[in-house]
UniProtKB/TrEMBL annotation:
<feature type="domain" description="Transposase IS4-like">
    <location>
        <begin position="85"/>
        <end position="236"/>
    </location>
</feature>
<dbReference type="InterPro" id="IPR025161">
    <property type="entry name" value="IS402-like_dom"/>
</dbReference>
<dbReference type="Pfam" id="PF01609">
    <property type="entry name" value="DDE_Tnp_1"/>
</dbReference>
<dbReference type="Pfam" id="PF13340">
    <property type="entry name" value="DUF4096"/>
</dbReference>
<dbReference type="InterPro" id="IPR002559">
    <property type="entry name" value="Transposase_11"/>
</dbReference>
<protein>
    <submittedName>
        <fullName>Transposase</fullName>
    </submittedName>
</protein>
<feature type="domain" description="Insertion element IS402-like">
    <location>
        <begin position="7"/>
        <end position="68"/>
    </location>
</feature>
Amino acid sequence: MDEVARFLELADPPARPNARSARRVMAAVAWHLRTGGGWRALPDGFLPWRTVYGWFRRWVDKGLFAVLMRTLARRQRRCCGRRPTPRLAIIDTQSVKCIGVRGPRGYDAAKRVVGRKRVLMVDAEGHILAMTIVPANVQDCDTLSALDEGKPYWPSLRLGLFDSVFRAKRCEEWCNLHGMRRRVVEKDPDQKGFVVLERRWIVERTFGWLSHWGGLLRERAGRLDVATGRLICVACLMAANTLNNPA
């Protein structure tokens, strides 16, 4: 994980680990997120779980994974023959159940899920540009404000694609505030069965990629910032794997 080592200057200099230690920490974090095992269940051969979790929390607080995710997204776009700065964003949400931990959660009546809602913004290739987590009882059209922290890092975005639940006036106001045009992709009223909607399948595919990680099948973190950090860390690991192992 050379990419992680390059961004370790975000950590406190006196306590900064070397590249080898950073790789060992990331290996343990990757095991936790891939298998869904608890921090205390780290197998022999990994660093002590308190050390791993401590560095993970420090990197989340410093914003390491968010910076790394954006850097890898730009590199992925260049590898696809695109400009590093996207102009199209596709935004959607996903409700996920929560295990019995403390922290904010809610009930999504539409999905009948007690847990949290993931808000994802991807580009035309499905590369993750920004993401966050809110309680599941927050309406989809009210989740856009949760992206206010990640959207400014992509000032080149000019068009946002949404589904029909984002037709509210406040969604249009949010897009205008960030200099974007809004386009709602709706189903045909006469549609029967499953039909692939224009560009909408891209963000759904990205949600499908995330489902391969056992640690993300349920929300496990008590704090929303840690839950978001786990999700962003997975995005970094997926992007690094794609760049190191191109199809």
